[in-house]
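Sanity check

After download, print the first record. It should look like this:
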Amino acid sequence: CVQTVITATNCLIVNNNNGILSLNDSNGYSLVQNCVADSNQIGIGSGFLVSNCTMRYNQIGVQFAYTVENCIIANNQIGAYFQGGPGTMTNCIIDANATGILSWGSGSRANNINNCYITNNGVGIIDSLCVGSLITRNNIENNGIGIKLQTYQDSIVCNKICNNTSYGLKYIGTSNVIVADNHWCTVDSVSTSGIVYDGYDNIG
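Expected C-alpha cells:
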C-alpha cells in the first residue's frame, strides 16, 4: 500500500471525473486549501483536510474528507459525503444542494457537524446509521427537510432548525431519540410537533 500525500493550494479544478483524489493511510493526510472545485463528478475526495475552498456544481462536492472547514459548498447534487467516518465539518456554508450533507456508515464511526449554515437544500443533513455523531450549533433553515435521521444515538443539540418546508426533522428510525435542546422557531410544543416527523406520524 503506497501512501500519497499532497498539498494543493490556490487551484481551480474543473470538469473532471475526480478533481482531486488521494488515498492515505493512518500516517497522515493531504491538504487542499483556497481551491475551487467546479463541475466535476467528485470535486475533492478521500483523506483530506479541506480548508477555505469552494465546491460548486459537482455531483459530489467533497467526499471522504477527514476535516472540512471554512468552505462554501453550493449547487451540488450532494454537497458533502462522509462515508464511514470519522469526519468533521465546521464553519461551512452549505447552500442550494439537492442533499447538503450525507453522513452514512455503520457501527460507531461518527461524524461531527458544527457551526455551519445549512440552507436552501432539498435535505440539509441526511444521517443514516452513523452512530454517535455530533450535530451542534448549526443554522439549518429554509431547506425542504432540515435533518433526515435514521440513527438514534446522535447528539443533536443547540441547533437553529427553522423554516424548513416539509419538516425540520424527519426521523425514520425505530428507537427513541432526544432532540429537545434545539431552537425550532415555534411558539409551543403543538406547533413544534407539526414540523417533526416521528412515531406519532407513522407508528411503523
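If your output differs, re-run the checksum step. Summary of this record's structure: The first strand starts at residue 7 and ends at 9.
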